[in-house]
Structure prediction request, 312 residues.
Amino acid sequence: MVSYFLNFIVFLILSWFLVHFLAVFGLFLFLVYPIWWLLNIKRFPCLWCRIRNNEICHFSHSLLDSGLILVFTLISFGLVWGESKILFKMGFPPAAKTVTFVIPPKGQYRLGEIFPMKIEIAGIKTPINTVQADLGFNSERVEVVDISTQDSFANIFIQKEINNEVGYARLAGGLPNPGFFSDHGLFGTVFFKSKEPGVVKIEFLPSSMVLANDGRGTNVLRELTAVSYLILPEKISQEEEEMQKSIVLQPAVMGEKIEETQMKFYEGEKVLGEQVGQEIEREKQFNLGRKILEILETIDRAILSFGKGFFD
Prediction:
């Protein structure tokens, strides 16, 4: 039983090599086979003659052999094309992870001051259609007053969650096909209010993601950024505190339109919704199966590109 299984595995591997070999060199063999037959009639193998019990070979038989090679080549090319489609559905080749969240690198604010932190996206090499920005922060030193979507490249927002007890905020949304494609873009603005002096760290959580508009929802987020702000012990004046009230936006409700370009499908309540994953960390680990599939996809793509260039 074990021997049969090993023979079957060897057969599959050899068949795979033969199929890909014919997909690359089959057309070349189809064209030169009759010429080789004329140059070395006695020693050259004749498939047709073997089928007909080694009868005398004629030049016409070499043409039939060429026809068989062409048929096998077309079948092999079709199998390679089918294999590439299956790999594409499985997520190969994966879109390159080039996107990063860009946030102001530093800043210092006084007690009670409301300050904005823009969530910008950079490094976009392929169109994107969905963004989920999850922020973690020290809730003892700052709190989130609101999350604004004004001037955002996204026009549909499905989730806005704030929890100042645990130090968590989320903004999720996107836009329909063909997605967003630019060097960088503004996704949203988080308004923080300082509560306690000291250094506060604000970071993007591993559950954050940026999905490509590639039909597979590939997460193209390359890394998670973080920033530290200094909260000064000096408190803002009463007049400044009154002026800040105009900064805080009214919470959105189900179906609200913003300047006729944005649709919000979430309740404006501040609720808990932290879901922290480890996707980026897992993908950094070596995966033999995934690496093999990536190699297969690269081979298929090279063969299909060669075939396209041959016929163009």
